[in-house]
Amino acid sequence: xxxxxxxxxxxxxxxxxxxxxxxxxxxxxxxxxxxxxxxxxxxxxxxxxxxxxxxxxxxxxxxxxxxxxxxxxxxxxxxxxxxxxxxxxxxxxxxxxxxxxxxxx
Length: 105
Prior knowledge:
By secondary structure, this protein is an alpha/beta fold. Helix content is 38%, strand content 22%. The chain is built from five helices and six strands; from the N terminus they run βαβαβαβαβαβ. The protein has helices at residues 6-14, 27-30, 45-48, 66-79, 90-98; strands at 2-4, 19-23, 33-35, 57-61, 84-87, 102-104. Helix 4 links the parallel strand 4 (57-61) and strand 5 (84-87). The radius of gyration is 13 Å and the shape is globular.
């Protein structure tokens, strides 16, 4: 699995590379702070993964990166996923580095 910095992910998204950022946090977590990207809670991600296989990189984001790493390991082990990446530091790092791109309440 690749670990990508928030800056690298932002540049890839802006360049419209064949990637997508997925927020795997729970719906209640999105109420306080969210990024304009699809949300698929961690528990339902495996079922949704077939629709994401078209991307070169599926970048997982959680609060700090820990859940994203666990999910990436699971997807690689159980589903032989080869296109899973992790947003280093999760939304916490995104806020620090890309604050204009977020919505917080």
